[in-house]
Design a protein that fits this description.
By secondary structure, the chain is an alpha+beta fold. The protein is about 25% helix and about 35% strand.
Length: about 100
């Protein structure tokens, strides 16, 4: 089992538009395990499929590294609110990329 924790962010700080951000004390926690089939828990049912941003990022990262995709069990627990400018989708992308290809 691999656990990855990613902080929320506040981007677009002052004159640093799209270049500066800061981590805040809200976190998304992701747990990954190799599995026989893709299973995603901890998020709304509509995102518990192969189009989940965490899984898509994982598959894209593997492809970039020349590795084949494989099924995993993903559990998502987050304090980062969706659609509030705190990078909830960014936490998903980072977690998917950080999962090692083993």
């Amino acid at each position: 089992m691999i656990k990855i924790t990613v902080p929320a962010t506040s981007a677009n700080l002052g004159i640093g538009y799209d270049t500066l951000g800061m981590a805040v004390s809200l976190y998304s926690h992701f747990t990954f395990e190799r599995a026989d089939k893709l299973t995603i828990t901890g998020c709304p049912e509509e995102f518990q499929n192969e189009n989940n941003l965490v899984y898509v990022s994982f598959v894209d990262a593997l492809a970039a590294w020349g590795e084949p995709a494989f099924p995993v069990a993903i559990d998502i627990q987050t304090d980062v609110p969706v659609a509030r400018g705190l990078g909830s989708s960014s936490t998903c992308v980072v977690a998917g990329i950080m999962l090692p290809p083993r």
